[in-house]
Amino acid sequence: MKFICDGLDLASASGVVSKILSVKSNIPILDGIKIKALGDTVSLSVYNQEIYIEKIIKADVLVEGEIVVEGRLFNDYVSKINTKEKVEIEKIDEENISIRFNLSEVQMQYYEKENFPDFGEYSSDLYFEIKEKDLKELIDRSLFCVALTNNRVMLKSCSFSVKDDEVEAVCLDGFRIAVSKKKTLSQKGDINFIIYGKIVSDVLKALEESDEVIRVTKEGNMILFDKGHTKIKVNTIEGEFYNYKVNLPAEVKNEIVVNKEEMEDCLRRASVICRDTAYSKIIINVEENTINIRAESEKGRINENINCKNTGDPTKLGLNCRYLQEAISKIKEDYLKIIIERPSKPILIRQIEEDEYKCIVLPLRLIG
Q1: pLDDT band at 123 (very low <50, low <70, confident <90, very high)
Q2: Residue 180 lies in a domain
Q3: pLDDT value at position 81?
């Protein structure tokens, strides 16, 4: 194997795939990055038994071949090749490769690729297409509600459903539910699948803020994220996901519109006081034009007011400050809406006009 490629392209590709390298696998070959030189391209691949990622770059391939290098060592080195100068990688004997650029050279050991899995073939019977930045936002707006350490499968998973040119992602942790939606560019068939939140988090690491089109294909129990030069394949989970709609307010007793920045600033200050209390509890009193936020601990107390517009009678409820902060942080608009059925029922935080994002949060019990 021998090829020449752009140093920045190599560093970028290695950086993308190495994000899902296993911390330490019991199978040494899976700690590696597979390098395959074929035709006029070089592909870098990583597999950690849950997710397979492949990144393709252009190259001048002089001798075709496949090897596996120690992943972290290779990535740590090529990430420091911060130049557009050409990099030459060559298999020089039965154990080592040489990496050369400018007047520099390093040698590294490699493994033969026999035990490293291939990406495999797939069909396109069920798929949808979406802009990469939209897929990234779709996941980011829901994944924060996954309970990664919980033993219940549904609480540490993310559900995706695609219907009528729209994809919806839902995550929950037992105390809150995040629902995120985005329009698709195209769609073939209605699609439903569930993926572990940890795996979805790895997919998110590989996504960028670009207008490139990603095709998401379902085949059996596999999902493929494909944007041509980068492919990611993951396993799905069998089962039915929780129907979050039963937690939406059945009727609206209070509809509160508030400035996002003012609410966030107030919650940041309140979190300093309530962070040592059980459930980071804050008390919220809503009047016609004012939201009063109080928190109290052994170390201090806070009492703040911000302006709002409340349609409904005055109301009082307790909430987890962090949960409320995280729910609000996913809204990009200047104003947000809080909908309350009654203080003991889940509240709904959402955008004013759009329906791309909403978060349901359970209240805390008030005593006295």
Answers
A1: confident
A2: yes
A3: 83
Vertex 187, ends 185 and 193: CA angle to 5°? 115
Pair 255, 238 in one domain: no
Q: Is residue 122 part of a domain?
A: no
Domain residue limits at 286: 249-361
pTM: 0.89
Q: What is the DSSP string of 155-199?
A: GGEEEEEEETTEEEEEEE-SSEEEEEEEE-SEEES-EEEEEEHHH
Residue 134 three-state SS: helix
- Helix H or strand E segment including 9: helix 7-18
Does the CA dihedral 123-125-128-131 come out positive or negative?
A: positive
Q: Which pLDDT tens digit goes with each residue over 291-304? A: 999 998 888 999 99
Please give the mean pLDDT across all residues of the chain. 92
Determine the average pLDDT of the residues in 338-357. Answer: 94
Token pair of 62 as six digits: 């002089």
When divided into structural domains, the chain yields a total of: 3
> DSSP code of 366?
P
Contact (CB, 8 A) for 240 and 89: no
User: What span, in angstroms and rounded, lies between the C-alpha atoms of 249 and 348?
Assistant: 7
